[in-house]
Amino acid sequence: MSFEKFENTLQKNLTPIAIKLENQKHLQAIKDGMLAAIPILIVGSFCLIPNAIGSLLPACGIKDFILNNSHYFSYPAAFTTDIISIFMAYSMADCLAKSYGIKTKANGIIAIAVQFIFCVSKVDGTYDLTYLGSRGIFTAIISAFLVVEITRVMRDKDVIIRMPKSVPPMVSDSMSALLPAFVEIILATLITCVCVNLTGGLFPALLESLLAPITAGTDTLIFTILIVLFCQLLWFLGMHGTSISGVIWKPFAIQFATENIANFAAGKSVGHIFTNQFFLTMLMASGAGLTIGLVILMLRSKSKTLKAIGKVSIVPACFGINEPLIYGLPIVMNPYLFIPFVFGPVIVSIIDYLAIATGIVGKQIVQAPGFMPPGVGAFLMTLDWKAFVLVILTIVLMTLFYYPFFKVMEKNEVEKEKKLENNEIQE
């Protein structure tokens, strides 16, 4: 099979899937809503860093100070990472409502109320907030969808209170949300009562037991390989692979990250490998395809064209942005770079996953900021210097992988430039 036929086969089979994923309102709402809550997660997890540093220090005054005041350092986490599902319920409901053209903010607020009904129980006179954290993220999805879909149906059927046009929009929007709010909150209460009476636990506990086989399957090497391969193929076809594939893996990956952060804060073992930061800071270091090594090769290229593109791409690549390279070189539909760009990251994913699974490198315990230089984000999320070293080694490996394919491409580019120069001289 020629490369052109192979390319057409990829386009024929993958493009429809990618378009459906990208246009699916609920999946986009999950992805966008979770991303909107990332700043809260970052702030809360960074407040845990002093406690982590204190546990690593030898006996000294600084260690004693940190350990004696650890409750102050971790205090913000109680109102950020420990109740992260509340923020996600709001943001996902808001995103889905906007996709339907529902402009009122009431949906997000009602989704918070529904999330509280689903997740909070009163035990011995005190409220148990266990499921407001990472364990309530999938419930937050249900809360958001339940609120927005009921609102949409009742709006379409005109089962809402409509105020005269002379009434201010803020008042009108609030009144139009009143009847749907009654239905949504009563329904959430009924679901909670049924779950408690039939299973002895809250709705999130039931959801956890039902989703256990799926969530267990996503935190595996096979799943990691398949997601990376799918992502790279989409990028190669000119689509935003990280964004499109993210609707599949981000809900699980972000939940795994918040669970790791919460367990670390509680002094428990950290179990998950496939997290949002693992994907972005290690498997996509310097951007999809780990291309910073390719950019360096281009900076030293004999081809004027490749060198010019390399100069434009080097600074963005240092911060995980390589769209200038992907679309400017381009890597998209480039037969010379298909093998290293698509399959190189798969090899890296195997190396990184096994390095963490075997305990050589630590798991994510902090939510690091995005767009960090290669290796820095990996270090910040694990607080393990070996994570930084691993990223640098995989980038070196990817550079070696790109090299022979790059040289063939460079030779072809130099010949084109020489022909162009000769034509200009003859003219």
Please describe what this structure looks like.
The mean pLDDT is 85. With 427 residues, this protein is mainly α. Helix content is 71%, strand content 1%. The protein has 2 domains: 1-24 and 219-427, no CATH class; 25-210, no CATH class. It starts with a helix and ends with a helix. α2 packs across α7 and α2 (25-36) crosses α14. A two-stranded antiparallel ribbon has the order 1-2. It contains 21 helices and 2 strands.
Approximately how much beta-strand content do the residues carry? under 5%
Mean pLDDT: 85
Count up the helices.
21
The profile of the biggest β sheet is:
2 strands, antiparallel
Shape: globular
How would you spell out the order of helices and strands?
HHHHHHHHEEHHHHHHHHHHHHH
Q: What attributes does this structure have?
A:
427 residues, mainly alpha, 2 domains, two-stranded antiparallel sheet, 2 strands
Quick synopsis:
The protein has 427 residues and is mostly helical. The protein has 21 helices and 2 strands.
Write the layout of secondary structure elements.
Blueprint: H1 3-23, H2 25-36, H3 38-46, H4 49-56, H5 61-68, H6 70-73, H7 84-99, H8 106-119, E1 121-123, E2 126-128, H9 137-156, H10 169-176, H11 178-199, H12 203-218, H13 221-236, H14 241-265, H15 276-283, H16 292-299, H17 304-317, H18 323-328, H19 338-357, H20 376-382, H21 385-426
Antiparallel strand pairs: 1-2
Helix pairs in contact: 1-14, 2-7, 2-14, 4-5, 7-8, 7-9, 8-9, 8-11, 9-11, 13-14, 13-19, 15-20, 16-17, 16-21, 19-21, 20-21
